């Protein structure tokens, strides 16, 4: 009988989703809070729009810069730890072999089973260091372009999220004259809807049940 090929589908865009979540969640909430606070103090929608746009611009730059520095810090930490492992493999190979054996022991392998693997791995210094980085320290090699990508992803997600609660005020100021209080109500509704849709989409892409917050297991 013909066999159906086994195809594994794994989600591999975790860092991108994390950046979008960081940018979008702050973009939805911070400009909304600013606009809602100004609504109670100012009865001029154009001022609220100007303040909201200024906050979105400043917030996107700050969030993007934070993502860039965090990614650069991760890359520098990885490079530093890798250099240390390379040095230890050369200077104290017996100790490093013992640490490799401990990793295999943690997976249930006996000393007799792990010894040939440890000895074989020790013959390949680069692979040995790769193994130690991943299984001893739990560090994955970062993408060299990760810092720039992270910065722009967070910044654009912040802008996209920030324009949603501000959209009713923009509409009120430039397209159709409505009361500031009415714009606030529309902003509340749009923000809540955007949060629900955003959570649903995130759940779909990460493999979790999208509606679990509505129907808990």
Q: Uncertain segments of ≥5 residues (pLDDT<50)?
A: 213-217
Largest sheet: none
General form: elongated
Overall pLDDT level: 80
What's the total helix number?
A: 7
The computed structural class is mainly alpha
Radius of gyration: 25 Å
Helix content: over 70%
Order of H and E elements: HHHHHHH
Name the beta content range.
under 5%
Cα distance, first to last residue? 39 Å
The tally of strands reads: 0
SSE blueprint:
Elements: H1 14-39, H2 45-91, H3 93-106, H4 111-122, H5 125-136, H6 146-174, H7 180-206
Helix pairs in contact: 1-2, 1-6, 1-7, 2-3, 2-5, 2-6, 3-4, 6-7
Summarize the structure.
Helix content is 77%, strand content 0%. It has 217 residues and is mostly helical.
Give structural notes.
The protein has helices at residues 14-39, 45-91, 93-106, 111-122, 125-136, 146-174, 180-206. With 217 residues, the protein is mainly alpha-helical. Helix 2 packs antiparallel against helix 6 (146-174) and helix 3 packs across helix 4 (111-122). The longest helix has 47 residues, at 45-91. The radius of gyration is 25 Å and the shape is elongated. The protein starts with 13 loop residues before the first helix and ends in an 11-residue tail after the last helix. 23% of the residues are buried.
Q: What tags apply to this protein structure?
A:
about 220 residues, mainly alpha, elongated
């Amino acid at each position: 009988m013909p066999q159906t090929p086994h195809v594994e589908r794994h989600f591999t865009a975790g860092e991108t989703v994390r950046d979008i979540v960081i940018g979008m969640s702050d973009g939805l909430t911070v400009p909304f809070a600013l606009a809602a606070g100004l609504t109670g103090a100012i009865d001029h929608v154009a001022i609220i729009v100007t303040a909201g746009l200024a906050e979105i611009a400043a917030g996107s730059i700050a969030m993007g810069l934070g993502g860039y520095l965090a990614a650069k810090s991760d890359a520098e930490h990885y490079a530093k730890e890798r250099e240390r492992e390379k040095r230890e493999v050369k200077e104290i190979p017996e100790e490093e072999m013992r640490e490799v054996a401990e990793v295999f022991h943690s997976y249930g392998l006996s000393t007799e089973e792990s010894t040939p693997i440890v000895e074989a791995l020790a013959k390949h210094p680069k692979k040995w260091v790769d193994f130690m980085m991943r299984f001893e320290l739990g560090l994955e090699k970062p993408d060299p372009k990760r810092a720039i990508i992270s910065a722009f992803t967070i910044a654009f997600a912040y802008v996209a999220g920030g324009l949603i609660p501000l959209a009713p005020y923009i509409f009120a100021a430039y397209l159709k004259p409505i009361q500031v209080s009415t714009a606030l109500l529309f902003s509340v509704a749009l923000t809540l809807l955007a949060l629900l849709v955003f959570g649903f989409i995130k759940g779909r892409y990460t493999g979790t049940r999208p509606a679990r917050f509505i129907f808990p297991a």
